[in-house]
Specification:
about 35% strand; three-stranded antiparallel sheet; 7 strands; mainly beta; about 140 residues
Length: about 140
């Protein structure tokens, strides 16, 4: 009986993690209410990331974050993961065209031919964390 009560208490207890956004993506103090602040995270997936060849040494992928439900542009942190050569790439932590629906990552290698086949062979994928508001 005590186990059932304990389990019910755990299920009924709301998540107590705290998130605090000090500055928004524009560098300003946020104006949205704190209860609307969430952390949303994901990955483009090892071996299934949709890479696009942009130039001889550049690949790009767009990351869709619409499922997070942000109403303003979130703060984004990214990393490039894989099983080889991902650690020598540039641009992997520099998302651009960031908005509430997604962002783009460009992977640049000055010394080797970076190609879609190489990215897929070495399972390159983008891991990301976004912090932002889901209500105004």
């Amino acid at each position: 009986m005590i186990r059932i009560l304990l389990a019910l208490c755990l299920i009924a207890t709301p998540c107590l993690s705290q998130i605090k956004l000090i500055k928004d993506s524009s560098g300003h103090s946020p104006i949205n209410p704190e209860p609307c602040l969430i952390t949303c995270a994901g990955s483009t997936g090892a071996g299934v990331t949709h890479w696009i060849q942009h130039a001889d040494h550049t690949l790009e992928t767009h990351v869709d974050i619409t499922q997070c439900g942000f109403v303003t542009t979130p703060v984004i942190t990214t990393s490039l993961a894989g099983i080889g050569y991902h650690d020598t790439q540039k641009g992997t932590s520099a998302p651009w065209n960031v908005n509430m629906a997604g962002f783009t990552i460009a992977v640049i290698d000055d010394f080797a031919d970076t190609s879609v086949s190489r990215a897929l062979q070495y399972l390159w994928h983008v891991n990301w964390i976004a912090v932002g508001y889901t209500c105004a």
